[in-house]
Amino acid sequence: MARRATKPASDDLDVRKATILEAVVSEHIDTNQPVGSSSVASSADIGVSPATVRSEMVSLEREGYLAQPHTSAGRIPTDKGYRYFVDHLENGVLGVAQQHQISDFFANVRGEVEDVLEQTSTLLSQMTSYTSVVVAATHAHASILSAQLVNIDAHHQLLVTVFSDGSVVKHSLTPSFDVDYETCAETSRQLNALLIGTTLETAVQVPSRQDHVAQLVRDAVAALHAQQPTADGEKVFIGGSSHVADSFDGVETVRKVLSILEQELLVVSLVQDMLSRGLSVAIGTENGFEPLSTCAVIVAPVTIDGLPAGAVGLLGPTRMKYQEAMAAAGAVSRHLARHFGGDEEHANH
Amino acid sequence: MARRATKPASDDLDVRKATILEAVVSEHIDTNQPVGSSSVASSADIGVSPATVRSEMVSLEREGYLAQPHTSAGRIPTDKGYRYFVDHLENGVLGVAQQHQISDFFANVRGEVEDVLEQTSTLLSQMTSYTSVVVAATHAHASILSAQLVNIDAHHQLLVTVFSDGSVVKHSLTPSFDVDYETCAETSRQLNALLIGTTLETAVQVPSRQDHVAQLVRDAVAALHAQQPTADGEKVFIGGSSHVADSFDGVETVRKVLSILEQELLVVSLVQDMLSRGLSVAIGTENGFEPLSTCAVIVAPVTIDGLPAGAVGLLGPTRMKYQEAMAAAGAVSRHLARHFGGDEEHANH
DNA sequence: GTTAGCACTCAATTGTACCGAGTGCTAGCC
DNA sequence: GGCTAGCACTCGGTACAATTGAGTGCTAAC
């Protein structure tokens, strides 16, 4: 009660305690069962009896790394225990088969950026058996390459805007007056003159004239700049949500997690939040969403030509296989960066 | 064994049998429990004793409408039993609250078609507590209003095509030669001359010259016409997949169903198949996918200005609340048609 | 044709005993 | 002083039997 021996406040543990903790965590990840002192003691490199392990476990429990479901059961890692485990994990290497799987995928993938990202998310979830998340960053900073107003019919026009990052956005206009082809063409010309080279963050000077073309230009610019800062253009691709069903016990947990995944905005903000806090793994309550308190989330930022371009992530139970999952996420993120970056081809073959 | 009394082959039942069957089905839908003879007997308008009900049930079981989990349990409807029930359901009316919910939604909804459909799917799943599916038909028959080649950089061009149904499609081109702005503009002009007014099913005569512009035109047309007939442009929006978790007992079933839902092509073909067979409800094995054999699927086609434009659907357990669900799907489908059809506004306000 | 009565079946529940994995503590050992 | 063998104790899980009760099928009488 009074004096503790060596490391009081530091989060560093005794070598032996660390070994024990790691043994408990990895065995629990394997078996999903409470881990007892004897199986830890027999676990290879601990030359010490179960009794000793036990007393160390008591201490680890007092310090919050382990917990006991009930008196006569083994120990389970707490979030803090997992955290220690993850922090002291050396970077894993991917199996050769998986490396090949990734390379093959990126060698053969076709289609537009969105298609590639969607398939990437499927790949990642198949590789890991966890639910995967691929987030493509907003194009708020991309400049406009082209803006064109297309006449659907007299009362419906479509503003089609192409950005320098290759994204295309459409906005419907429904003016109260009739519009003909020529008016559209003229509006397109003025829009191009006005918008090309600007970003969505640039303020532009719209014409104040009262004619129809000016009116359309104003409407178009307004529609374009009206992007909700929330829906912001991030695209999210979620793959393998069926894995949620086998990652968690308890239907209620499954429902909660699925229900979070349905809200893409939440997912985006979770990932963004982790990136901004510099976290690559969020364990249990660390992610800030109560319904996800039995989940762990792994993210790996994707950086293309030095710029943040999004992230890939994995969501699994706290008892997930961190090393494998982190290695997979990392590898896929690097491949993505290479695929879209620099001198490489942009999307299509 | 020899003679049966009245209706031998017809799928029509005795009035009393029908009443009993309906009582069993609706009580089982309410309780998710096998239904016994006595609770059917006491169920209102059957002026008959449990014993009589029992002997009728034996006969219903022989004819395949009911099944018994085990000897001393009540009866459960078979798929055939549900089918009879559904076929003899008079059209339900939606609750006032729900009618309001739908009207409010469509009065306030903003954004492009895709956004509206996505939100519609969320609406439908929230109203019914089932997983919803919204399918927007392909634009194979829509004609091209505009085709433009935009220069991303010297080696990357984006072909942006606008169709008469308001859809916008992009295709990346990566020619092996450098392309400048003027080449792009000229290509765009030729593409427009060539493509405007055609559909993707129209064959077009591409130029056979060897200059860069002609090359680009050929590439662009090829990319445009290369649409997989499968991925065909149908958009699918799935809402409320978390409801899968509380619709089914058994993690394995949940996993299977989610895993089907992940494969959008499967979902589309399921819906298309049902539409082409003129089915509005597929119960259990009727839907043709083994993993969905404990599911029922409801679809309601969406017809805009007389043309098939897609469908809305609901997926739940075979013991779903058919009347409510069908009413909801029907109402939403009608509102969608009105929202996008005729003189109404196209998408935006 | 209907039904009351009855014997029967079988899942679900309850109670009991037991096993064993795992613990915490302590006394003795190195 | 740290480690460990030994031991009493805890408590979830399992196995088994007894009991309950919802529900059936059959039959004889109305």
Task: Tell me what you see in this structure.
The structure is a homodimer of 349-residue chains. With 349 residues, chain A is of the alpha+beta class. Chain A folds into three domains: 15-87, Arc Repressor Mutant, subunit A (Orthogonal Bundle); 96-137 and 234-340, 2-Layer Sandwich (Beta-Lactamase), CATH 3.30.450; 144-225, Heat-inducible transcription repressor hrca homolog, domain 3 (Enolase-like, domain 1, 2-Layer Sandwich). In chain A, 44% of the residues lie in helices and 18% in strands. The first copy, chain A, has twelve helices and ten strands. Chain A has a five-stranded antiparallel β-sheet, with helices on both faces. In chain A, β9 (295-304) and β10 (307-317) form a beta hairpin. In chain A, α6 (113-128) runs antiparallel to α12 and α7 packs across α8. The radius of gyration of chain A is 27 Å and the shape is elongated. Chain A starts with 14 loop residues before the first helix and ends in a 9-residue tail after the last helix. The model of chain A is unreliable at 1-9 and 344-349 (pLDDT under 50). Chain A binds chain B through residues 112, 145-146, 148, 150-152, 155-156, 158, 160, 162, 164, 166, 168, 170-174, 223, 239-246, 251-252, 254-256, 258-259, 261-262, 345-349, and chain B through 112, 145-146, 148, 150-152, 155-156, 158, 160, 162, 164, 166, 168, 170-174, 223, 239-246, 249, 251-252, 254-256, 258-259, 261-262, 345-349. Chain A binds a DNA duplex (30 and 30 nucleotides) through residues 34, 36-38, 48-52, 54-55, 57-58, 68-74.
